[in-house]
Structure formats: structure tokens, C-alpha cells
Amino acid sequence: MIRKTFKGGVHPPHYKEATEHREIEKARLPQRVIIPLQQHIGAPCELIVKVGDKVKVGQKIGEGKAFVSAPVHASISGEVVSIETLPHPVGGKVLSVVIQSDGLDEVDNNIKPFGSIESLSPEELKKIIREAGIVGMGGAAFPTQVKLSPPPEKTIDTVIINGAECEPYLTADHRVMLERTEDVVFGIKVVMRAVGVSSVYIGIEDNKPDAIKKLEEAVSGEENIKVIPLRAKYPQGGEKQLIYAITGREVPSGGLPMEVGVIVQNVGTVTAIARAVKTGMPLIERVVTVTGSGVKKPRNLLARIGTPFKDLIEECGGFNGTPGKVIMGGPMMGIAQTSLEVPVIKGTSGILVLTKEEAKQYEPGPCIKCARCVDICPINLLPTRISHFSQMGMWDEAEEYNALDCIECGSCSYICPSKIPLVQRIRIAKGEILARKRKK
After folding, report:
1. Across the chain, what does the average pLDDT equal?
2. Which residues of the chain fall short of a pLDDT of 70?
3. Residue ranges of the 4Fe-4S ferredoxin-type domain (predicted)?
4. Of 59, 330, 347, 394, which is least surrounded by CB within 10 A?
5. Are residues 274 and 305 in the same domain?
6. 264 and 137 belong to one structural domain
7. Coil, helix or strand at residue 50
8. Which domain holds residue 290?
9. Where a domain ends, among 279, 314, 340?
10. Is 406 annotated as ligand-binding?
């Protein structure tokens, strides 16, 4: 088997054994959901409900009026009991709609199938995707209809479906490929028609041979859809790394995939697209891997958007002893949480619970100039230099060293023998550089 890959990267242990063979289970209907009005990159939604309103499953409660935005919908039926600024799992607080379940799980009357792909024009398909509130479900949460609407001068000839799932512990995408194969292929065909391309590659790491086989069988009769086995290496799921591994094209510094004629979509995203077209149901639930040695019964759960983390952890048997850290996502790029009352959002691929020993903090030592971080950086940056500039508040110098190109994969911090928090310092530099640009 020829396995494609990219330069750099690291090989952290996979830690997927606990859930990679666990089928997706439907999570219990939550008694209460918290729906943030911003679950995507771009402008937040505008509120279109008020306290006391009765809502149904799939009903729009937040309108995304800006081009780079995505509406949000009620994931349960019940009553809007409060609208307030609440903690968000990616940090800070966001205006959120709290819905108390009526136990009926009644679906909104406007939810109806849209018909066959062939009966819908590209513009109609993009409108369906937009109205369904679909965003990138690999974690970035970029509004999908924006990706599918490149400027006229940008010619797109290739779509890549990201099934790499290179982040340790997480298996949600793996299970989706195995159990919802038909929807993955259907969603791919929707994207092909919406963008007008005839060349699609599905990239899957070779530590998922069953998914590779299942997708190869599913597209065996499709001349323009090919499965590409990838070498298991982190961060193989990064857009730029995926594009280079599969096509050999390099996205320029500061550029987007469309600069090289490519659009990348996650397998979970195309599955949500398939459901929206087939049934009319917007994005109101997603598969979440709840795992780690700090939880008793790791599982892959189909959870409603807005379900508090606490509910899903309890459904997995609760904590295995005293937890050391709870992370949304995986250990490399995930975000540590300060509360279990934060909700599952569209970009929540996993909830990772680490024990106290695993979450132990290390005191960083001095840089020993080993250059390991330089060797493994998938973007060819100099992490130590940018980190130094960040510590010194030298933002112009950090920008000159292309700090904004950092994808924050965490490979540099992982490989550093001195345990220097390189990616955290680079993230600070990026924030300062962007803030200065906004002021200008």
C-alpha cells in the first residue's frame, strides 16, 4: 500500500483503542441545552427568539446575516427559559439560548426533504447548506457555504475529504466512515455538484484500514472519487498538510486552499450535508468521542448540540477517580475546560478526560538549541525564534518570522525535550499581531 504524507510532523501514541471499535450510540435526550449564538468562525448570529417562546427541533433560533456566519437551531423541543452570556468551550463568554426540554422531541413543521441532488441547482444546494447551519466539523467550524462559494477568479478543480482524524484519542470520524458510509458518499456528491468539480480524494490514515476498505468499496463504481491511504502522522489532518500529501500542491504563506484550486471538507461535515439534503434537518447533533483514562466507560455518542459536557461524562459512567483535566477535542490541539456546564458545539469532536498524573504540569527548562521543533514543524517555521519574540513582546519580529502561518498543531511543544510551551507562546504572538492589525 502506497501511503502519502508530508514533511515534518510527529508520532504521538494513538490512544484510540478505548473507542475505535465502539459503535456510535445515541446519547440520552438532554433535559436542558445551551445553544451559543456563535459556534463558527465569523460574525455571531442575531437572536430571533425570546424568553418564554416554545421551540421545536430544527427551528432556527439565531440568524446568520453576515456572509461569513451560520445560523443556529434548537436541538430539542421545549421552552426558552433564559437568554444570557454564558461560558463557551473555546473560551470566554457568549450570548446563549437556554432551552428546557418538554420531553416530546417534537420536530419543526418546516423540516422536509429537499429531493434528489440532480433536481437541485448548485445555488439551491449552497442555500440548503447555509440554512442548515453547517460548518467545518473537524474543529475549525468555518461556515461551509463560504468554502463552497469561492470568488469567480478562483478556479476549484479538486475537493479533498478529510478522514485523517490524526488527533490522538478521537474516533468520531472513524466511526462515521464505518457506520454512515452511504451518507459520506452522498454528501461528497452534493459538494461536487455545488462546486462543479469532478475530482474528489478521500484521505484516510493507514491506522484505519477498515475505514479505507469500507470507503473503497463504497466508491468502487465512482470514477471521480478515490480513496487515498495516508501515513499515520500528526498533523496529517491539517488542511495544508493534507493538500500537499495528496496533490503535491503547496498553499502559499497567508493563503487559503482555494489559492491552489482545492476545497477541503471533513467527513463529519459531508455527513451533515447529506442529512440536510435528504431530510431537511439542520445541524442539531454530532458524534462526540468521550474518552480518556479519567472516564469510566469511553464511548462514541451522537449528542445534541447544546448538551452540557457534564451530561455526557455522566452517561459514560462518570469520572474514573479525580480528574486532572477535561479537554474539548484531543490532547494536541484541544482546549482545557474550567467548567463542565459548557455545551457541546458544532466543533466538539471529543471530550477527553485525563487523570491527575497525565495532566501533570512540567516546569519548562532552557532551550538547548536541539532544533527538533524546527525539524518537525509542518509549516517550516522556526518555533523557538517566534516563541522568544513572543516572550519579549517583539510582535513585529514575530510577524516577520511568519507567526501567523502557525496552525497551532502543538507538534513543537510535544517534541521539545525542555518542555517549553512553544505553541502557547506562538498563539499569544498571533493574537497580539492580529489585534494590532485590527486597530490599524
Report:
1. 96
2. 1-2
3. 358-387, 397-426
4. 394
5. no
6. yes
7. coil
8. 24-101+282-355
9. 279
10. yes
CATH code where residue 304 lies: 3.10.20.600
CB 390 within 8 A of CB 425: yes
Are 264 and 244 members of one domain? Answer: yes
What is the pLDDT at residue 362?
Answer: 77
Within this chain, do residues 275 and 294 fall inside the same structural domain, yes or no?
Answer: no
User: How long a stretch of residues is the chain?
Assistant: 440
316 labeled part of a ligand binding site: no
Burial 425-437 (b: 16+ CB within 10 A, else e): bbbbbbebbeeee
Please check if 377 is assigned to a binding site. Answer: yes
One domain for residues 152 and 195: yes
Residue-wise pLDDT for 293-305, tens only, equals 999 999 999 999 9
Whether 108 maps to a domain, the answer reads no
361: CB partners within 8 A, 6+ apart: none
Give 150-181 as a DSSP string.
--TTS---EEEEE----STT--HHHHHHHHSH
386: Cβ–Cβ under 8 A, 6 or more apart, which residues? 398, 401, 402, 403, 406, 422, 425, 426, 429
- Structurally, the chain folds into a number of domains equal to 3
Both 349 and 418 in a single domain?
no
Our CA angle for 159, 163, 166, nearest 5°, is: 125
Q: Among all chains, which residue has been given the C-alpha cell 532552557?
A: 366
Report which residue type is found at 305.
I
The CATH code of the domain that includes 214 is 3.40.50.11540
Angstrom distance (rounded) from CA 412 to CA 40: 27
pLDDT for 80-114, tens place per residue?
999 999 999 998 999 999 999 999 999 999 999 99
Q: Please, how many CA atoms are within 13 Å of residue 349, restricted to the half-sphere of its CB?
A: 30
Answer yes or no: is 111 within a domain.
no
Annotation-wise, does 166 bind a ligand? Answer: no
Final residue of a domain: which of 279, 298, 325? 279
45 labelled as ligand-binding? no
370 is annotated as contributing to ligand binding: yes
The pTM score is 0.95
Cell readout for 143 is: 461556515
Phi first, then psi: give them for residue 195, nearest 5 degrees: -100, -20
Q: Is residue 331 part of a domain?
A: yes
Q: Is the peptide bond before 150 cis (omega within 30 degrees of 0)?
A: no
Q: Which helix (H) or strand (E) holds 289?
A: strand 285-291
109 vs 23: CA distance, rounded Å: 31
Burial of residue 359, with CB atoms counted within 10 A of its CB: 0-12 exposed, 13-18 middle, 19 or more buried: middle
Query: What percent of the residues of the chain are helix, what percent strand, and what percent coil, each to the nearest 5?
Result: 30, 20, 50
* Same domain assignment for residues 199 and 331: no
